[in-house]
Amino acid sequence: MARKRVTAVVKINLPAGAATPAPPVGTALGPHGIQTMEFVKQYNAATEAQRGQVIPVEVTIYEDRSFSFVLKTPPTTELLKQAAGVDKGSPQNRRQGVGTVTRAQVAEIAQVKMPDLNAYDLEAAMRQVEGTARSMGIAVVEG
């Protein structure tokens, strides 16, 4: 069996179970000749259980205009915002904090993100999550 030739790989962050063919989906996939409605149906069906989260997706587009997609874990920033109970990060992260998360919450987030991080162990993944928290103005506290 001959392998299909890949023409493009598109990465998009979409709300789980609630994607629509409007931008950003239409503008990202339309130029490649993909049936946006078909993609939206498949994506929403695959992410229905995670409704309320933002789930990045990597869409591989083939020469014959067919496609496949891989779901990624939610962005670290989204998980941190939920854990800290804030709407957005700090505009001045060094001077103005917006919330706190515990080391246990950081470990939980690192566990979720582990498949998509380039870390060998949980400790390294936790350091990456802590760095993201710092850049958002979220303090990491013991507890």
UniProtKB/TrEMBL annotation:
The keyword ATP-binding does not apply. Keywords: Methylation, Ribonucleoprotein, Ribosomal protein, RNA-binding, rRNA-binding. InterPro entries: Ribosomal_uL11 (IPR000911), Ribosomal_uL11_bac-typ (IPR006519), Ribosomal_uL11_C (IPR020783), Ribosomal_uL11_C_sf (IPR036769), Ribosomal_uL11_CS (IPR020785), Ribosomal_uL11_N (IPR020784), Ribosomal_uL11_N_sf (IPR036796). It comes from the Bacteria. GO terms for molecular function: large ribosomal subunit rRNA binding; structural constituent of ribosome. Part of the ribosomal stalk of the 50S ribosomal subunit. Interacts with L10 and the large rRNA to form the base of the stalk. L10 forms an elongated spine to which L12 dimers bind in a sequential fashion forming a multimeric L10(L12)X complex. This is Large ribosomal subunit protein uL11. The lineage of its organism: Bacteria, Bacillati, Actinomycetota, Acidimicrobiia, Acidimicrobiales.
